[in-house]
Every structure is written in structure tokens, then in C-alpha cells.
Amino acid sequence: MSSMSAIPTMSALASTSEILLAVENVTLRFGGVTAINGVSFDIRKGEIRAIIGPNGAGKTSMLNCINGFYHPQEGRITYKGETRQRMRPYVAASQGIARTFQNVALFKGMTTLDNIMTGRTLKMSANIFWQMLRLGPALADEIRHREYCEEIIDFLEIEAIRKTPVGRLPYGLQKRVELARALAMQPDLLLLDEPMAGMNLEEKQDMCRFIIDVNKTFGTTIALIEHDMGVVMDLSDRVVVLEYGRKIADGTPDDVKSDQKVIDAYLGVSH
Amino acid sequence: MGQFKTSYAKDMVIFPIRQDRIGVYLLLGFALVLLPLMMAFHVPPFRTDYFLLAILLPFLILSLAAIGVNILVGYCGQISLGSGAFMAIGAYMAYKFGTGISEIGLPPLPIVFAILLGGLSAAFFGVLFGLPSLRIKGLYLAVATLAAQFFFDWVFLRVKWFTNYAPSGSVSAPELKFFGYLVATPVEKYMVALIFVIVFALIAKNLVRGNIGRQWMAIRDMDIAAELMGIRPLVAKLSAFAVSSFIIGVAGALWAFLRLGTWEPLAFDINRSLELLFMVIIGGLGSILGSFLGAAFILIVPIFLTVLPAELGIPITTGTVSHLQNVIFGGMICCILIKEPLGFARLWQIGKEKLRMWPFPY
User: Which among A31, B39, B157, B273 is placed 20 to 30 Å from A92, CA to CA?
Assistant: First the structure.
């Protein structure tokens, strides 16, 4: 592939820190459709990594591969130095990969607080008999994790809606609750699938602020998919560009912006 | 005058609103002390045992079964049409443990253990018949659980071991001795059922507001997201089947021992399953309170409709009454579900929210 040679060099900051996740030659097919075709890239610890591309480029499929929901037919994914072929989603979750969804995937019948508490599931240890009595370890669990969830509620400024069923919340707040739920998992790698989709300008600004804060305060590595180019270029340290399941560019926002292939992919090119 | 909480523990109690708490204490006091006293002294409406045996006792036991169904259907979102079968397993296995299993040299067990073991047996088969839920969802799962219903109807009718080879096919409950105390009168039966209901309702409430309950609801609301958050569908779904079937099984044993005394498999047929499902839907999916409200509605309204024409002196035959009862009852269910699809529990909640704001709606 000729595109590989054209990939710009990494930024100085990103290339110094260690690699958290490496995707090597991953190919994912659904029957006759090849959603991802031999894509390789890496995510370094502590960076904000954007995945962009036109609709149907395979961005969400890529995230689904990373957190074990899809199993690629070819290629390897190395996370924290551990290479894997297949993985169940809950294993990925227990290893510290959290995510939000393109179409909000909250638990509609539960309150904001319960949604966020669900993110703590993996950290709760009391067995079912203590939970029946709601005493001892079970009660201690509930209180300890409630305290942590309240910190996140505080961080994301959603105190007023903590007891509201999420189905009743406006879209922008639902997105924020979803971020809170993912943060409750204390992830090492946070995958955000279009966190700004369908938001107005102010909500987008809030969300940007939260993403940067999460990255800076908790040191969480973030991989995000986003269509708003302004947001992507401002937020991310490095950008990988997909088109029709192939990688066409990878590098700093400035490099990617001036890449001819990326411009062609987004603006179209006359053949 | 608001009510403020100063710790998370206080914020997380079952009834955070003081009025609710007082109401529940009053209700418990009424059910535990006043009602038995009224029964003992035959104060109206307890002049005869009818009110107690035909309404209160069935209400308590079916509420318990409805809580079990609600955990599975309302909290975990796995539709089940096999509840009747799990009641039957609870009843027959409690009977076997209560009368002793001679094949393995097991002597008759004390009645409380027999009932709990009946529940455990139901939990075991609940998990077994819950296995398809890992692959199929919704209506298809309903059909799979229907298989459990018909299978166990057949088993308890044909496999004579379960009935201790009784020629008539019907069995009678063993002597109801609870910790050496013989339970015989309706009032005593009521108290036994009440204590079981209180204990299991509390356990169910604790479970659904804890970690496991959140896992069930997460699976119900968005199973893919739940899995990506580290919830294992296998564990969550099968634990819901186990807990639900256990409670339904205990309710089945109580129904057989306390309410029926002598019973046949017909007592736990598909109609029972449907009745329990209706209770849960009308009362409120995903609500412990709703289980009680649903049970009360399904039980009491038909009785009320049957008695009403005679009380009003309307001259119609009993046949017409029973037909009319079906028509009116069906109509009421339709109206309620159109008006409030989330059931009585939701109505209660809306009322409470309105009252909290009253008289200033902001």
C-alpha cells in the first residue's frame, strides 16, 4: 500500500511515552463486507488519540474490536503488553477499558446514580448473601462506592440529576451521564464514540472541557471518534484517519490536516 | 420543611421519606398485631374465616410469588411463562422433603427446612431452564419457559415418585409443625405466611437495590453496554433465574401447605403462570411494591365483581355474573395498561412526587 510510506512522523511528546495499546494489521469481515482492512496504529499512555474518517470507514468497528465486542479475523491487538486474539467484553472491562456509545446506551430504567454505580460493579466484592442482608461488606461496598460516584458526579457537574431516571434527561445530559458511568470504572483506556454528536455549541464546549479534564486530572488515556473537525484538531495529540476500512493517514493534527489523502477523502476528488 | 440526609447510609435506606417509613411501620403493626387480634375475636369482617382464607392468605402467598416473577421479568427483563411450574416444584419437593425420601434414607425434615429446600430445588431447575436465555431473548425465551411449564405439569402428573405413589394422584401436606409449634387455625397460617412474605420481601428489596440488582437492571435495559462494563450476562441472568425461582418455589410450597392442604398438579398449571405474569405487569414491572399491588388487584377485583350484583340486589344469574366479571375485569386491565403502562407502582410514585411538591408545583 502506497499510503503507508506517506504516514507523517509522530509528535515529540507522544513518541516518548510507552505504548498502551497496539493494533497490528487488524482485518474484520462481516460475510463479504470487509469493515476493517489491515489497519495498524498504536495508542500511547496518557494521550488523546482521535480516530476520524467518513461514515462507514470502520471507526466504531475498530472500537468494538478493541473492547472485545467484535473479534477480528486477522491481526493482533496488544493491550498493556499482552497480545490477544479473542477476548470477551467483560475481560476487556476488567482490564481497564471503558467506553461510551454513539447512540447513548444508558440503562434507561435506572437513575443517574444507579447508572454510575453500575460502573463500579467490577470493584464490588460482597457476595450475594451479604447483599441479601445489606449489612457488613455489602453495606460497606455500597457506601464506599457511592462516595466515589459522588466525586464523579461532582466532577461532571450533574449533582441535580442524580436521582432522576436517565430516560427523562435531555440528550446532552444523557451523554454526560454516560461519560460518568465510564469514568466510574476508573479506566486506563477510555473509548469515546462520538461524544459530541447531536450537541449544541455550549454542550460541546462543556464536553471538551470534561474530556481534557479527565485526561489531565486522572491521566486517563483517551481514544475518541468525532466528526467535528474543530474539536478533533483542538483536543487530540494524534489522529488516525480511516477510509473504507483502510488507514490513510496517522499523525499530529497539523500533519493530518494538510495530508492530501485526507483532504480527498473528506472533500471528494474528481477522477 | 425538607428532609435532609447527612450521610450516604441514611440516603440509601429503603424508605428515605419519613412519611413512607411511618406508613410502613403502621402497616406492619396492623398486619402483625391488629389483624390477628381481630381474627381471634372474630371482629367483622372476620366473622367467618372466609375473608382470611379466600382473600388475605392467597394475597400474601401470591404476592410472594409475584415478587419472584418480578425479579426475573421486571428487574432482569427475562420473560417467563413457567412460574407455575416453579411453584409446583417448590410444592412437590417441599412435600418430598417434608415426608422424607426413603430411597436415600432421608427422614422427614422439619417443615421450614422442607419449604426452603423446595425453594432451592425450584432454584436449581430455574437455572437449568434459564440456560436458553443466554442465547435467546424476548418472546422466544417466553416459549422456552413455556416448555418448563408443560414439562413439569406432565412430570408431577405421571411420575408417581413425587406423589409418594398416591393412587388418587393428589397429595396432602405433612403436619405443619413450625419449630415444634403446630399450625392449624387460619390465623396461625396467616401469621406463618406473613412472616415468610416480610422476610423475603426484605431480601428481595435488598438485592434489587444492591450490586446484583443493578446488574439485573443493566442487562434488562441495555445488555450490550452492560457486558462492556464488565457485567457477565451468564452470571446476571442465571442469578436472576435462581433467586426468582427460589422465591417462587417457596411461595409454591406455602401455597400447597397453607392454602390448599391437598393438591394436584392442576393447581400449578399455565393459568397460574399467566396470573402471576399479569400481577407483575399490572402492579408494575421492576417494583417490589408493584408485586403486592398487582396481586391485590388480580385477586380482589374478581371477588368484588362477583359479590357486587348480589349486594346491590341486581337480579342476575350467577352464570351471567361470572361472564360479566370476565368482561369487566378484562376491560379494566386494558384501560389501566393504556393509561399507565408501568402499572400501579408508577401511579403511586407519581402521586408521591406530586405530594412532595404540593402545594407549589415547582
Answer: A31
Q: How many CB pairs under 8 A join A and B?
A: 104
Query: Which residue has 425461582 as its cell numbers?
Result: B245
Query: Residue A2 above 60 pLDDT?
Result: no
Classified as helix, coil or strand, A76 is strand
Residue B23, domain CATH: 1.10.3470
Average pLDDT, whole number, for chain B?
Answer: 89
ipTM of the complex: 0.88
Residue at B350 is within a domain: yes
CA of A151 to nearest chain B CA: how many angstroms apart?
13
SS3 A193: strand
**Number of helices and strands (H, E) in chain A?**
12, 10
pLDDT of residue B10: 82
Pick from A105, A121, A150: CB nearest B224 = A105
* Residue B245 pLDDT greater than 70, yes or no: yes
pLDDT band per the 50, 70, 90 thresholds, residue A206 = very high
Contacts of A131 in chain B (CB under 8 A): 206-207, 210-212
Q: Which residue has the cell 452470571?
A: B235
Of A69, A134, A141, the CB nearest to B206: A134
Model confidence at A16, in pLDDT bands (50, 70, 90)?
Answer: low
Q: What is the pTM of this model?
A: 0.90
In a domain, B121, yes or no: yes
| Cβ(B90)–Cβ(B252) below 8 Å | yes
| Residue in chain B nearest A67 by alpha carbon | B228
Flag if B225 and A106 touch (Cβ within 8 Å): yes
**CA dist., res. A145 & res. A136, Å (int):** 14
C-alpha cell read off for B234: 451468564
Report if residue B9 sits inside a domain. Answer: no
Residue B160, domain member (yes or no): yes
- Is the pLDDT confidence value at B248 over 90? yes
User: Reduced to 3 states, what is the DSSP secondary structure of residue B261?
Assistant: coil
Quickly state the pLDDT bin for A78 (edges 50, 70, 90).
very high
Domains in chain A (CATH in brackets) are 1-94+222-271 (3.40.50.300), 97-186 (3.40.50.300)
Residues from chain A contacting residue B224 (CB–CB below 8 Å): 69, 105
- When CB atoms are compared, the residue of B211, B221, B230 closest to A109 is B221
Whole-number pLDDT of residue B321? 81
Give residue B60's domain range.
Answer: 18-43+54-357
Q: Give CA–CA dist A114/A162, Å, rounded.
A: 8
Say yes or no: A132 contacts chain B, CB-CB below 8 A: yes
With a pLDDT cut of 70, the percent of chain A lying above it is 93
pLDDT at B316: 78
Q: Judge whether A105 is closer than 8 Å to chain B, CB to CB.
A: yes
CB contact under 8 A, A131 and B211: yes
Total of domains in chain B: 1
Kindly report the nearest CA distance between residue A213 and chain B, in angstroms.
Answer: 22
From the list B209, B220, B229, the residue facing A119 with the nearest CB is: B229
pLDDT of residue B226: 94
* CA-based nearest residue to B253, from B321, B193, B201, B182: B193
Chain A nearest-CA distance from B301, in A, is: 29
Q: How many CB atoms lie within 10 A of CB B45?
A: 12
Residue pair A112/A168 in contact (Cβ under 8 Å)? The answer is no
CA B38: distance to chain centroid?
Answer: 25
